[in-house]
Amino acid sequence: MFHHKKERLETQMTEIRKLRDIVENKQPDLDKLQQKYSNLLYAPAVILAVSFIMNISCNSDHPLYEVFFAEKEAQYRQDHQDEEFEIDVSSTLARIDDALQKSQVRMKTLENHDKKKKLGDLTVSMVAYGFMSARPETATTLFKTAYDNGVLFFDTADLYDNGRNEEILGRAIIEMGVSRESVVIATKGGCKLTAAGFVIDNSKDYILSACEKSLARLKTPYIDLYYIHRLADDVNLDELMQTLKLLRDTGKIRHIGFSELTPDQIKTVFYKAAEYDLKIAAIENEVSLWCYDESLIKMCAEFGIGVVAYSPLGRGFFSEKAKEDFVERMDAKDFRRTLPRFNMHFRENLQIRAVLENLTRKQSWREGLTASLEHRVFRPRIASSLSELSLAWLSNLGDHVVAIPGTNSVDHLQENIWSACKPFGEVEMADVFEVLRQTKFVGDRYPPRAEEMKSLAAAQERRPTFPNDQSFLGGRVDQSAAANLSAQIVKFGFASQ
Question: All domains of the chain, ordered by start, with CATH?
Answer without folding.
Answer: 3-79+87-113 (no CATH), 116-496 (3.20.20.100)
